Structures are given as structure tokens and as C-alpha cells.
């Protein structure tokens, strides 16, 4: 059904300091395997909570590295969807826009949102598991379900690890601080495609609301964030976001 976009469009058109906060639903229409449906082949017998942990990597680096390299290759084959492009178009209209994502893909960047804040790291930022030195870019195209020995760090020879926040790990402090600061000072926060269940990321929209910011949600389902949002658009990001940008700034908004 066509949502009445007018209230949300009016808020967005008047935004001076905008935060766009996104989760896995933002990339769903790009065909990126979500965290849980990436468990196929060799990995299908694993529960995500058991694979995305420092313990799993220590126990079997090739199993975990192979899985993340396969996910990274899957993301590299995917394309940003019209929702990602609509987010980039918003920043062209609201210069003070900060994109904060829980996703580990690079689709916001590939759609033009440079400077995206990654609260849970990125598949494209592998680093040394010991000295944290950044490691080189994508290796060979991994085969699905195959183990893959991680490369060794050029400085200290320890295994390279995925640059993703695992279960039990703290979030990268600089990213969390940048996200909280942006939520603290924004006048509008648009939350898209997140279940709002995982902390501390789920705090971000609540910080904006507590500080008097207007929160708009785009998600086909209800979430705990319904409680803090002023406008709730129940639809898929790739359809709703371009329509919202056109409603806010007219057809010239090139989305
Ligand atoms: P968890 O609850 O065991 O760990 C949460 C971690 O976040 C804690 O270790 C703590 O350091 C930190 N934390 C929790 N609440 C906080 C708060 N209020 N303020 C500051 N720091 C806080 O495990 P989890 O929450 O299920 O997952 C941990 C993180 O790993 C989450 O951010 C989750 O989204 C992320 N994760 C990422 C992937 C991926 O592939 N991107 C997969 C699984 C989990
Ligand atoms: N458009 C918008 N939202 C969508 C779409 C879509 N096309 N498809 C699904 N959604 C919504 C779902 O309704 C759900 O609320 O996206 C949300 C996805 O929720 P999760 O799978 O929990 O993803 P996310 O909120 O990003 O999870 C947080 O937990 O798994 C860890 O670290 C991982 O970053 C992830 C974190």
C-alpha cells in the first residue's frame, strides 16, 4: 500500500543535521546474504553465534576466514539498491548528513555515501589478529563451503582476521563515539532496516529521540524503535526511500 509520505517528507526537507541509521534490511534488496542466511555448505551446521566469535577464529582460523571471504565475495558481486542511492541523494540535499550503519558491506560507500560510520566493522577492512595492522585487500575468489587459510600479517606474521565486530567484542570506540555524537546533535534521524534488538547500536535512535530529534523509521515490520519514532513508514527501503526523497525535494532529486 502507498504510505502517506507527506509528514516524513516535510520533516526530511526541513532537516539541517541528519543521521541515517541502517541495518541488514537496507541491503536485503541488494541480494546480500543476511548474516543468518549465509550459513550454507560447510558452514550450514553452525549457529551464527558460534561462528562469529574470537573463540571460533582461534580454534579454526581457516573455517572462519573462509566463511568471511565467501561473504565478502558475495557482497562484491552485489549492487547498491535504489535505497542506498536515495541515502546518498539525501546527503546532497542536507550537507550535514552522517550515515551510521551496522552492516559490514560496502554498499553505502559504492552508492556514494563516503565516510559511512561502521559500528560493526567491515568485510573490507581485514586486520592483523595480533597487532591490528590493516591487511591487504581481497584474496583469491573463495569457493563456497571451503576452508581458507588466512594470510599472515606482514609485520608480525600473526594470522589476519576479518575486520568485523564479533559476538562478545566491544564495538570500535571511534565509530561508537562518532555515532553517539551525531545522534546527540541531529535534528532528524532516519532509521532503516534494523530490528533495533542489538545493543549498543540500538541506542543510537534513542539518543536522538531523547535529545529532541525527530525519528523516522522505514521497516516493513514493527520493531522496539516504534516507541521512539514520530513517523513510521512500513515498507521496503528500496521502494520507500526513493519515494521519500522525491516527496521531500521533488523529482529533480535524481533518484
Ligand atoms: P554480546 O552481547 O556478547 O556483546 C555485546 C558487546 O557490545 C559487549 O561485549 C560490549 O563490549 C558491547 N556493549 C554491549 N552493550 C553496550 C553498551 N550499552 N555500551 C557499550 N558497549 C556495549 O554479543 P552481541 O551483542 O550479540 O554481538 C556483539 C556485537 O557483535 C554486536 O554489535 C553485534 O551486532 C556484532 N555482530 C556482528 C556480526 C557481523 O557479522 N557483523 C555478527 C554477530 C554479531
Ligand atoms: N527494507 C527495510 N527493512 C527491511 C527489509 C527491507 N527490504 N527487509 C527486512 N527488513 C527489516 C526486518 O524487518 C528487520 O527488522 O530489517 C531488519 C533486519 O534485522 P536484523 O536481521 O536483526 O539486522 P540488524 O538489525 O542489522 O542486526 C543488528 O546484529 O546480526 C548482528 O551484527 C549483526 O549488524 C547486525 C546486528
TrEMBL record:
Residue stretches making up the Deacetylase sirtuin-type domain: 1-255
Catalytic activity: N(6)-acetyl-L-lysyl-[protein] + NAD(+) + H2O = 2''-O-acetyl-ADP-D-ribose + nicotinamide + L-lysyl-[protein]; N(6)-succinyl-L-lysyl-[protein] + NAD(+) + H2O = 2''-O-succinyl-ADP-D-ribose + nicotinamide + L-lysyl-[protein]
Keyword Magnesium: no
Localization, UniProt: Cytoplasm
Positions of the catalytic residues: 120
Superkingdom per UniProt: Bacteria
Protein name as it appears in the record: NAD-dependent protein deacylase
Source species: Micromonospora terminaliae
